[in-house]
Amino acid sequence: QVQLVESGGGLVQPGGSLRLSCAVSGIMSSIYAMGWYRQAPGKQRELVAEISSRGITYYADSVKGRFTISRDNAKNTVYLQMNSLKPEDTAVYYCNANPSFGVWGQGTQVTVSS
Fold first, then answer.
1. Residue 59: C-alpha distances to residues 3, 25, 26 (Å)
2. In the chain, where do the E strands start and end?
3. Is residue 29's pLDDT more than 90?
4. What's the confidence (pLDDT) of residue 72?
5. φ/ψ (deg, to 5) at 88
6. Relative to the CA of 54, which of 18, 32, 42, 73 has its CA 20 to 30 Å away?
7. Do 107 and 6 touch, CB atoms closer than 8 A?
8. What pairing do the DSSP bridges indicate for beta strands 108-112 and 46-51?
9. CA neighbor of 73 nearest in space, from 106, 18, 20, 32
10. Are 71 and 61 in contact (CB under 8 A)?
């Protein structure tokens, strides 16, 4: 059974940084494109970054140049380095394959506020 456990969120001031981690178990994530998604209150979940099995990355325009996705296949873990955070980055962040595995983790809350 696939399990996804996100961590690393928190409260940060505008301009700050956070590094999110996603531990994947029950499946070899290295063969899948993995993504970070976020869902803000009252909004639909959106894909913000993706990394292919070959390491090719994609970023939504809203985070391009500020977020960096990476993966450690030996640890079955995906990361999201978030710099220059803005209040509009506030959301619950989830990781999953793209397309998704069909199950989701609990996510990790990121709040950007002064």
1. 24, 25, 27
2. 3-7, 10-12, 18-25, 34-39, 46-51, 57-59, 67-72, 77-82, 91-97, 108-112
3. no
4. 95
5. -75, -5
6. 18
7. yes
8. unpaired
9. 32
10. no
- Give me 57's structure tokens: 């990355």
Tell me what the mean pLDDT of segment 70-76 comes to: 95
Segment 44-57, tens digit of pLDDT: 999 999 999 999 99
* DSSP three-state, residue 60: coil
Amino acid at the residue 53:
S
Burial of 32 (0-12, 13-18, 19+ CB in 10 A): buried
Contact between 106 and 46 under an 8 Å Cβ cutoff? The reply is no
Strands 10-12 and 108-112: parallel
Handedness of CA 12, 14, 16, 17 (dihedral sign): positive
Interval 18-22 mean pLDDT: 98
SS3 of residue 89 by DSSP? helix
Rounded CA-CA distance 15/57 in Å is: 23
What's the whole-number mean pLDDT along residues 19-41?
93
